[in-house]
Design a protein that fits this description.
The chain has 93 residues and is mostly helical. The protein has helices at 15-24, 29-44, 52-61, 67-77; strands at 10-11, 65-66. The protein is globular, with a radius of gyration of 13 Å. The N and C termini lie far apart (40 Å).
Length: 93
């Protein structure tokens, strides 16, 4: 899979959305890490995933990650990466 020019750009994921999707599947963090590896291997033939500590940082504190890492997580959750980006709209309108 060719690299996208945005692969290295940092984004702020919605950690709660990621955790909610993981919980909805009844998965532990390690289950999601394994699902990410399987999805990436199916798509590219290469086994790649993220570390459980990176997943914890994303879920717990919305740690910024690259677009490429967000795509990995979205692949494991079988969703569009855009659905996992934090909405930073001003709630006061």
């Amino acid at each position: 899979m060719p690299n996208d020019v945005d692969d290295d750009r940092l984004v702020e994921p919605d950690g709660l959305a990621i955790r909610s999707r993981r919980h909805a599947r009844g998965w532990s963090p390690r289950d999601l890490v394994e699902a990410i590896a399987r999805a990436h291997e199916r798509a590219t033939g290469v086994r790649e995933t993220i570390r459980p500590t990176e997943l914890a940082a994303v879920e717990e504190s919305g740690a910024r990650i690259s677009v490429a890492r967000l795509r990995l997580i979205a692949g494991g959750l079988d969703c569009n990466p855009v659905e996992l980006i934090a909405d930073r709209a001003d709630p006061s309108g």
